[in-house]
Model the fold of this input.
Amino acid sequence: MTPDSPTGAASDASMELLIPLDGSPEARAALRTGVALARAAGARVHLLRVTVSPEVAGSGLGAARDPVAAQAEVQVRADAADDLARLAVRMGADAGVRTVAVLDTAPDAAAAILAHARARRAAAIVLATRGAGGAVAVGRTADRVLRESDVPVLLVPPAATGRRDESLADTRVARVVVPLDGTAFTARVLDVVCPLVRAAAYTLVEVRAPRADVAWDELTAGWAWDPPGIARLRVEAERLHRTEGVDAEAVVLTDRDVPGAVAAFARERGADLVAMVTRGPRAEPAAAVGRVTAGVVRASTLPVLVVPFEAVASARDAVRTLRQAR
Done:
């Protein structure tokens, strides 16, 4: 067990997190959240910087290259390589995280990130977003990775990155809010989240819209500990406590704005991260990220771990196989 593994579970030396960087302050700051997960799980970090060359992309193919532009590209790649090497050393010295740094040149950054995740069998991808307020703010690269990834993607907004002079070892993920929808399938997201995040406390939350046949009273909006139907959530919380050894609680919210309610509650509860499953199959890219999940990503000022449909299905099958073996 690593010192920062609050669940008491053994660290996973085979786990690897892919953290793509693009040289921006947002990406560098989001690195802290990725390091916090790696420290808690005892995982290795794969730092990736993708530089896009016009020649590689095809815009300069077969044409005479501008020697000044060509030299500038060489310098950009050299600076990126030096930056990655320094970061890898710092992550080992400051946070004790084993780190591999790779510089790649490709015509498509999103495709390169996805390819590296598959090749490295990454447990998750950590990406910075550009801010709150719509898909454009997430960034085209992050949006495509989110839609096409078969592994969880942790999106870290600028508001969640803290001070930029903060040590890499200072960030912790202690409490996670996990929105569920009452189905057995979404509850299986915990089989993916717990080994990856290794938080000490979890809040399972279900948001219900007011019933049409019941008069709406603004005073009833909010969160409650003992509403009707909370028994199902409490069963999941008890299972989580029993199997993972963590503190777990169940909360039901009543609100018309489900994504907004989740984001606001996570802030009020003092959570460090929100984790939720997407519902759309990858065969339908436009629907790959569910409406509620996309809304939470837009509204949240906390990191959001988006777990794809496939990852939950695989975890469910693995748990079923383990139970049959016993």
The longest helix spans residues 67-95. The chain has two domains: 1-171, 173-326.
